[in-house]
């Protein structure tokens, strides 16, 4: 049987847990960065009130949420 000191066992346990948390954080950060990409066709600019807004519908005409005017791409 392998004999190991208690303090070394606790240190190895904490090192393994910290590495698992670090790897999962890095993988989650990469996944989150991919989801934040915004396509420029969804960004609209109102010609009346100069409000920039996002409309995810793929249309040629959009209604400004601030002033209610129609905007054309």
Descriptive overview:
The structure is a single chain. It is built from 1 helix and 4 strands; from the N terminus they run H-E-E-E-E. The mean pLDDT is 88. It is α+β, with helices and mostly antiparallel strands. The chain has one helix at residues 6-35, and strands at 43-45, 52-54, 61-63, 70-72. The chain folds into 2 domains: 1-37; 38-73. It is rod-shaped and about 80 Å long.
Task: Name a few traits of the molecule.
73 residues; two-stranded antiparallel sheet; 16% strand
Brief rundown of the structure:
The protein is α+β, with helices and mostly antiparallel strands and 73 residues long. It is built from 1 helix and 4 strands, in the order αββββ. It has 2 domains: 1-37; 38-73.
Number of domain modules: 2
User: How are strands sequenced across the largest beta sheet?
Assistant: 1-2
**Tertiary shape:** rod-shaped
> What is the CA-CA span between the terminal residues?
74 Å
Number of strands: 4
**Order of SSEs:** HEEEE
Number of helices: 1
Low-confidence stretches: none
Major β-sheet annotation: 2 strands, antiparallel
How does the helix and strand content classify structurally?
Answer: alpha+beta
Instruction: Assess the beta-strand content as a share of residues.
Output: 15-25%
Radius of gyration: 26 Å
What share of the residues lie within helices? 40-55%
Q: What does the average pLDDT come to?
A: 88
Strand and helix map with partners:
Layout: H1 6-35, E1 43-45, E2 52-54, E3 61-63, E4 70-72
Antiparallel strand pairs: 1-2, 3-4
